[in-house]
Amino acid sequence: MTATATLSSKFQISIPKAVREEKHWQAGQEFVFIPKGKGVLVMPVPELDQLAGIAKGARKDDYRDREDRY
After folding, report:
1. Residue 60 neighbours by CB under 8 Å, 6+ apart
2. Which of 1, 17, 23, 34 pairs with 70 at a CA distance of 20 to 30 A?
3. Which of 48, 55, 13 is nearest to 33 (CA)?
4. Among residues 30, 26, 21, which one has the least CA distance to residue 1?
5. What is the pLDDT of residues 6-64, one digit of tens each?
6. Distance of CA 44 to CAs 24, 33, 49, 58, Å?
7. pTM across the whole model
8. How many other β-carbons are positioned within 10 Å of the β-carbon of residue 10?
């Protein structure tokens, strides 16, 4: 799917309807903008309950800490 939008004089962009519907994005949802090379990655900020269990199975030993950096 290819969709385009134009930056307004108020520096606003409307997300095309097809993209909003495919991603199930809603009005009032918060997004983060991450610069990537010549572009920007736009991602919704997850709700706290969506993060539950995200590190399940992660090893608690042998991890890097700030103390082992130069």
Report:
1. none
2. 34
3. 13
4. 21
5. 999 999 999 999 999 999 999 999 999 999 999 999 999 988 888 888 888 877 777 77
6. 11, 9, 14, 24
7. 0.63
8. 5
